[in-house]
Amino acid sequence: MISLKGLTKRYGDRVAVDDLTLELKPGTVTGFLGPNGAGKSTTMRMILGLDRPTSGTALVGGVPYHEIRYPLRTVGALLDARAVHPGRSCRAHLLALARGNGITRSRVEEVLETVGLAGVAGRRAGVLSLGMSQRLGIAAALLGDPDVLMFDEPVNGLDPDGVRWVRDLMRSLAEQGRTVFVSSHLMSEMQLTADHLVVIGKGRLIMDAPLAAVIAQSSLTAVVVRSPHAGDLSVRLRAAGIGVERVGENAIVATGAGIERIGDLAYEAGVRLHELSTREASLEQAYQELTASSVEYGVQRASV
Ligand SMILES: Nc1ncnc2c1ncn2[C@@H]1O[C@H](COP(=O)(O)OP(=O)(O)OP(=O)(O)O)[C@@H](O)[C@H]1O
How many Cα neighbours within 13 Å face the side chain of 110? Predict the structure, then answer.
């Protein structure tokens, strides 16, 4: 479990993280989303004791990171895959981390196997591809078999098989009851991986909700209705405050209410239905709506 209370970081007069209060639950993959510069890495760095909060607290399993005796056995993290001594082999890098945390040699071999680096364990970290470096970073995070795992952009540089492997790994870590906190800009991937989402913009919390709720609240999530009495039903739905768009003689797209409510209203109105289905927004669409006013470093959309 990770708990943030009023977590704030200022650099001069710039507020990188602004009063974040959150609880990240075990058994869940929580996706951490936000535009460039939103404060995701700074938040993760404060949880790991690498940056000092200006105010507020970040606790892992109820205590600040610096009070944890064997940190790698409590929280594993991948922040910057390239932050490894370039002259050290993969195995030597992991052995050095293991020694400081009371972790066995055999565990090093085990995680090398898990991340698919056993065959190149003797290779120097400095000559690894970005994807292999990511795998080494993930191995380091897994080393202490921790209950809490944090990954900053873990699929960066991975090929499609690697991306899928990370997705399956995150899911299985959560299924084992661990707390998994992962940042990414790849919305399609997050939609497949995360149960819960935390969205921030300009350091502030925008949303802390289950994935399904984030998608449901999008204005692009709608209910599609086909009925031979679409006109009558439109009047009825509008009277109930529901957004209605006619899309052809017999079809309606309704927004602002769930499928159950629309079905009930149709039933009450005695209107026969030939289709009642949900058209879900993608996470990408929901995310864009949520963060539209928080994008600092965006480019203007090209008009075609
Ligand atoms: N050491 C630092 N000194 C000054 N400003 C910093 C420092 N580290 C981060 N910042 C600023 O804090 C803000 C948040 O940065 P951060 O790297 O946490 O964002 P992010 O959400 O991880 O972005 P990205 O998606 O681009 O990785 C940015 O405006 C950044 O310029």
Answer: 11
